[in-house]
Amino acid sequence: MSEVASLPTVLVVDDEVRSQDAMRRTLDEDFTVLTASHADDARKQLERYEVSVILCDQRMPGLTGVEFLKEVRERWPDTVRIVISGYTDSEDIIAGINDAGIYQYILKPWVPDHLLDTVRTAAEARVLQREMHRLDLELRTSTPVLRQRTAHKLEKARNTFDFDRIERAAGSPLDGVCEMAARVARYDLSVLVLGESGTGKELLARAIHYASPRASGAFVVENCAAIPDTLLESELFGHKRGSFTGAHEDHPGLFQRANGGTVFLDEIGETSPAFQVRLLRVLQEGEVRPVGGVRTVPVNVRVVAATHRDLEQRVREGLFREDLYYRIAGISLTVPPLRERGGDIEPIARRLVREVSAELGRPGAELSDEAMACLMGYPWPGNIRELRNEIARAVALSATECIEAQAFSLRVLHGQAGLSATAQATPLPRSGTLGERLDAIEAMILRETLLRHRWNKTRAAKELGLSRVGLRGKMLRFGLEG
Hints:
The chain is globular and about 80 Å long. By secondary structure, it is an alpha/beta fold. The longest helix is centred in the first third of the chain and has 30 residues, at 112-141. Helices cover 49% and strands 12% of the residues. It has three domains: 9-111, Response regulator (Rossmann fold); 159-336, Rossmann fold; 339-477, Orthogonal Bundle (Helicase, Ruva Protein, domain 3), CATH 1.10.8. Helix 3 runs parallel beside helix 4, helix 7 runs parallel beside helix 8 and helix 19 crosses helix 20 (457-464).
C-alpha cells in the first residue's frame, strides 16, 4: 500500500467534476484528497491507499452511494463512510444507515465549514476508535503487569479531551466558563452550551463528559442542522425492521449506543417544532421509541446541547418549545467569541502552529513577532476555526520555519471587515491634550501603513519617511510589535 502523505486521506466519490473540485478545495488544507468518478475507480483508490474517510454521492451511474458504501464496509471496515445527497433520497439513506454503517449524512447544498468539520470529526473518531480497540485487545490478552499498563493507557485515551486541552491565557474570560463547567460536570444535569460557530463548544462538551462519572461511557455527536427530521429521528432514536422500505433489520439509535454516556446535540436551535416534541418526550421519560416500533427502550444518557442561536428569543418567537428549552438548559454556559478574549489568541495560535505544522510534516514552524501582532489585530469573525485555517495556509506557504506576516491572506493583513470595524471602534480622539491626540492619530497611521505593506518594515518606513530603526522605535512605543 502506497503512502500519499502524512495527512489523513479522504476519498471523494462523485461523478460530477465540479463537485469533486469544490470538495477538494474545502478539504485539501487538512487532508490528502483523492477523487473518483465511479465505483470502479474508487475501488482502485481504496486498494492502493489507506483511506481514513470516504465521501460518496448518493446518485451515481451504476451503484448508488449507499450500495457502494455497503461494499466498502465489508472490504475496508476501518474507513469512515459519509454519504452526500438531497432530501428526496432520505428514505434510501435511512434504509442504508445500518447496512452500510454510514457515519453521517450531509445534505446538498452542503456548507464548506460544516463539511470540513464533519470530515475532521470523522477522521479523529477513526483514530480514537482504532487506538481504543488496540488497547482493549491488549487489556484482554496481556499479562497482569501489561494489563495494568494498558489500563493506564486506556484511561489516558479516554481523557484525551479535558479542560486543560482548552487553550487560553492566564486570566482569560474562559477561566470562569471552564471553572463552572468543571463544577457541574460531576452532576448528572443537562447542559446548554451557547456561543458563535467556531468558538469550541464541542471541545467544552467533551471536557464535561470526560470530567463526569460517565467518562467510561460513549460520547456521541449529532449535528441537528445537517439532516432532515425523518433521518434525525432514525439516527437518534433508531428504527425497527420493516418500518420503511429497505429497513431489513433493527437499527439502534445514538441514544441507545450512548447508554451510560453522553449525547452531544449540536445546533439544537435548528430543529423543527415536530422533532422538538419527540425529543422532549425522550428527555422526560428516559426512553426512546424507534421509528416503526411499538415498544419503548429505556436509555440512560446525559444530554449536552449547543447552539449559536439565542434560544430565549426563539422561544419568544414561537420557534423553540419553552418546555424543551428548560429541559436542556439545566445549566447554561456561554463560550465568548475570540474577539472578546484577545489575550487567548497568542496561546491558541502557537498551539495551532505546533499541531498544523506536525500534520503537514513541517515540525518546528513558529510565528514571528510581526506575524503574531498581525493575528492579534484581527477580529476573527470565524473564531478559532478561521484562525486554524489561516495558520494552515501560512504554514503551507512559508518557505522557512519562521512564519512571517506576509504568509497571511490579505483579509487578515488588511484587517478586512476588520479594518473598517477597527476604524469605527477607534474614532479620532475628541478629548485629551494635543500631544495625546496626536499620538493616537500617529498610532493609527502606523498600524494602517504596516497592514497595507504586510508588516514589511522597510517599505512602511520608506513611505512614512522614517528610518527602519526609527519605525521600530515608534512601533515599540505604541505597542504595535510583541
